[in-house]
User: What shape does this take?
Amino acid sequence: MATEETLVLVKPDGVARGLTGQILARIEAKGYEIVDIRKFTPAREVLAAHYAEHEGKPFYEPLIEFMMSGDVVAVRVAGHRVIEGFRSLAGATEPTTAAPGTIRGDLGRDWGLKVQQNLVHGSDSPESAERELALWFS
Ligand code: DAT
Ligand code: MG
Assistant: This one.
């Protein structure tokens, strides 16, 4: 079986706050491999496809606007059980209650906005990873 891969995004808040290096260092320190990396401001079409599952939710439009607000760093990360492992490194969605020791718990906070700015995205299943990697690295 080929080594598992996941899509990690350092979101615009992480890039703007100068946390890209710290986030990538945590991925490497855990032992995962950075296979490919790109930095760019994503177009609405990519984001609409990426976040299709959230369409219609109250935070959907703020989420798309936030993700279009600046550069993101998209990373292809490889390793056995990396999908689950990166979700564990990232921590819970809400940065206020994300466990200390996680990326969101250590580096994130709630800014009182319509969408949570929580620094990173990580694919949540093998199906999502395959779909998202094709979308961000096509
Ligand atoms: P995750 O990124 O932990 O997989 P998700 O896929 O449920 O979370 O949501 C995508 C992003 O949308 C999430 O990283 C932050 C934002 N978000 C999710 N739920 C939210 C809520 N109830 N209020 C505000 N923003 C939310
Ligand atoms: Mg998600």
